Amino acid sequence: MSLDNQQQERRRPDRAALVIAALLMVVSLIIAWSTASHGAGANYARVGPTTFPYVIAVAFFGLSIWTFFEAWRGDFPEREKQEISPILWIVGGLAAQMLLLKTAGFSIATGLLFAATARAFGRGALWKTIPIGIVLAFVVWIIFAKGLQLSLPAGPLEHLLF
Fold this sequence. Notes:
It is a single chain. This protein is 73% helix and 0% strand. It has helices at residues 2-10, 15-37, 51-73, 84-104, 106-120, 126-147, 156-161. Helix 4 (84-104) runs antiparallel to helix 5. It is flat. It starts with a helix and ends with a helix.
């Protein structure tokens, strides 16, 4: 009898996966609708600018159907408990980077993102990872802004040294 109970528990529909299946379906419909509403594009070729978005929409549609059936049968493995703290550190680092990019510049903003991500993964203290992140981001800024002549936001640090 306990074996039957375990099979019943395992065969229960996975609600989270059903939500993911519904979201995949919505994304596929949005991509198809958006592609169809943008007009014909280039009609002179069979494969034009609208072909690839339709392929992506069909792929998402197929994934949504597959996810739905797997969720309904309860075939997904049991998920581990989610830790919210690392997610908040990474989202906070991304928010800080977006807010500080124009005022503090690429190096400082990206250095803070690096430190927040390192903190999320449990690597090093902030007093150590912030300077390391700023130095690494500054090297990246030099390579892209000066070496490749690409436009990255410059802040006080970049203006001080260049």
